[in-house]
Amino acid sequence: MTKKILLIDGNSLIYRAYFANAYRTKTILKTSQGIPTNAVYSFINMLLGLLKKESYCDIKVAFDKGKKTWRHQKMPDYKGNRQQTPPELISQLPLAQEFLDSANIDWFAMDKYEADDLIGTIDRYLEKHCPDYEIDILTSDKDLFQLITPKTKLLVPNSGTSDLTTFGLEELKAKWNCRPCEVPDIKGLMGDPSDNLKGVNGIGEKTAIALIGEYGSLENIYDHLDALRPSVREKLIKDKESAFFTREMATIDTDFAVPDLKFKTLNLNMAELGKFLTKYEMVSIFKRLGLTTEKVNPSANFDVQIVDHWESKFEDEENNLFVQNLEDNYHHGKIIGVAWSNKKGNFYWDWSQINAPKQLSFFEDQVLAPQIDEAFARFLLNTRCLKNTYDIKKTLTLLKNAGYKFAEKSFIYDMMVASYDLDPLVKANFPDHLSMVEENLAFLTDEEFFRGSTRQVRNLEINEKAKFIGEKAYLIGQTKTKILEKLKSANQLVIYEKIDYPFIFVLYSMEQTGIEIDVTELREQTQNIKNNLDQLERQMDQILGPELKSRHINYGSPKQLQDLLFEILKLPNLAKGSTGHEVLVQLVDEHPIIKPLLEHRKFSKIYNTYLLGFDKYIFPDKKIHTIFNQTLTSTGRISSGEPNIQNISVRDEDQKQVRKILVSAPGSEFYSFDYSQIELRVIAQVAPEPNLLKIFKDHGDVHEETARKIFNLKPNEPVTREMRRQAKVVNFGIIYGLSPYGLSKDLNISVSEAKKIIDSYYANFPAIAQYREKVINLAKTTGYAENVVHRQRRIPELASANYHLKQFGERVAVNTPLQGTSADILKVAMNNIYTDLQKNDRQTMMVAQIHDEIIFSIPNEEVKLVVPMIKTKMEHAFIDLLDLVNQGHLISIALEVSESHGKNWLELK
């Protein structure tokens, strides 16, 4: 029977764990005695996560022992360009080894050898002497790709120490187009800056992969120098010695003995492990393992009273409330329990064990009156009883669906939104937000506690649930002051208090309002698209002929398409097996099946995503009620899910028809208000760029005027449609850090032509070039970018040694202030409009925000009253935004808003 063993590159993973945690939290996790533990904490979490997924029979961990190895003997400055290791990380290497000892996991370190040499030797020993073993190697060091075999695979973290990618022979072939034995040759060419290995100067990863893919080895490349381009040949000749030396240094040594190497059945020593976790105060790990001790639990003295109804004596002036459910789509959510905490104590009311109130979920005509607790209902409506919670929007929805009414503004604090404003890169859930602001108060996820299934809820002891849910309410109150103080010290409190907190109620109103669906139109479109798909499949079957038709090819399966196109039909494999849209477009002239295949893919998306997809989200009120995610994007923009209403195409004629199913109520119409080129106006303002400002001030066509400048046209020369199109691509591309290569691809021109266009753009709009340089340099210094009201986004990629990650970081640094400012303009406009509608008791409802567009449902009798107000509020929103930081007087750009209306969304465009 096959056994699986896990080999871990200890140094690689502990380094990665340290920096990932430090970037995420902005602080170093320490014990109450000041001992740094952030790297060990992440390292242990990663290991336990793997053990939960896989049944490994044994684990071996390898570490570097000293600074000098056999490689240093050959090259004294090996790894000499690395930055000095932080003392907080150095001190945690022994802690990692102490953890492994306590857990009864073997670890190894040897003089003269690196961790990857040890792993390579253990791996080759297993391959040779233990035929019943399969080996997984956990590492972020791509040198270890050379160890891959049919039995050995690599597990490489994508971000931090989670989200692992498995690399076997096929994955290595797809990534580097090589065999494992050729990995050192590739490294010999492209070098490894992190190890101070030069390779061949001027030969990067792409060229190295291509050369080894063509010739297989350094020897074969140097035997065929005459066949290479002169520029490549000269580089290879110049650095031949370096290429072979780098290959030697990158080759893992597997030819030595590892002392005391024995294999045993994994048996974690829980008692010793508990002592280690207690010693270093690792609370959430302790809880995950089901261990208990007062010493490790920072809220060990937490006491909760279990009640079966509400009483006024439980209430206080300020209350921390947590309403627990398990569903991602809280519109369908069922309340499991309600917990609250205040100066009078901690309380838990279990709803899963009693006859809980009926969940309504948009049943407007519910016959059976919901069973409600009158005292709890009064508490929710009492504006003198203030409430703090986590995710106000979800909490209000769950309470409403349970039949309760509430005073919205008595909910004064949202821990989720406040934590998001503090750091939008941290995943928006209670445990991650908690650990971000209070490292010693780590917490289990709902999935971990409830065992990932609602079936388990009733089987849990009520005391367990009371403590778990009750602690959430308690910790909301415990962390509130610290979160708000952090926001204030980071100059971001105004974002939370003046923008994102009021925006919660705007989004709640939009979700509750929903959008009506024309069910008849939906059914008709669904059938028509199904007929189109069936016809296209018959057409493709005929093209393939009887022999291939008999294979019953699923045209929606990427794997079957890959086999059909590249193995059976032998079409050019342009992107290593990819059957993506761009690849298929390039293959249109290669075979008659490609054109109907592209049509089939388009109609399949319409059918599955928008038609069948929308059908399952229709509530009994004949509406869809999407969830607007306020804490998902890193720029401050909102997203939509369950279903996503923001990605319905307005360009493709067939996809556009889907918009016809979204209809207005009788006696009203949809009105769309769309900002014109808002991000270009923002960059004109923040750069500030005089030439761009003048175009907007003169109400010129920004793309036409840009084309006139970058193509150096005379006043009487016309701008062609193609020139304007290219200028439009450049205008918006500059915002996203457009490169010459990217522009050449977008415009289908050479890289040199693209570079000329970009250079001409910056020459004509020099302030934008200066702005770009300024924000990148500032982000490199501070580690983050921010918009005009100081909304921040960390950019750890700027510190990466990886060129492509660093370039991505620079693009983010340029784009974040622009997208973030645009997003906040939208939010301020929506907040102000919502306030006006509420104040004047209008029936007009905001129903959606899509990119730079806000959609309203406006009763016919209110059109003349609210349309001018909406446009005015939107046009003034940039000034209103900067007024929040006392800079509204600095605005020199006007925002323009276009308007359209119709009975359905199709008529809006």
Structural commentary:
The chain folds into four domains: 3-250, 3-Layer(aba) Sandwich (Rossmann fold); 298-514, Ribonuclease H-like superfamily/Ribonuclease H (Nucleotidyltransferase, domain 5), CATH 3.30.420.10; 519-624 and 632-659, Taq DNA Polymerase, Chain T, domain 4 (Up-down Bundle), CATH 1.20.1060; 664-689 and 765-909, Alpha-Beta Plaits, CATH 3.30.70.370. 48% of the residues lie in helices and 12% in strands. The strands form six sheets. The protein has a six-stranded mixed sheet with strand order 3-2-1-4-5-6, with helices on both faces. It has a six-stranded mixed sheet with strand order 7-10-9-8-11-12. Strand 9 and strand 10 (345-350) form a beta hairpin. Helix 5 packs antiparallel against helix 13 (270-279). Belongs to the DNA polymerase type-A family. It holds the Pfam family 5_3_exonuc_N. Keywords: DNA damage, DNA repair, DNA replication, DNA-binding, DNA-directed DNA polymerase, Exonuclease, Hydrolase, Nuclease, Nucleotidyltransferase, Transferase.
What is the CATH topology assignment of the largest domain?
Rossmann fold
CATH superfamily descriptor of the largest domain: 5'-nuclease
What topology, given as strand order, has the largest sheet?
Answer: 3-2-1-4-5-6
Give the helix/strand class: alpha/beta
User: How much strand?
Assistant: 5-15%
Total beta strand runs: 23
pLDDT averaged residue by residue = 88
Distance between the termini: 63 Å
Residue stretches low in confidence (pLDDT < 50, at least 5 long) are 292-300, 355-360, 363-369
The portion of residues assigned to helices is 40-55%
CATH architecture of the largest domain: 3-Layer(aba) Sandwich
Report the C-alpha radius of gyration, rounded. 31 Å
CATH class of the largest domain: Alpha Beta
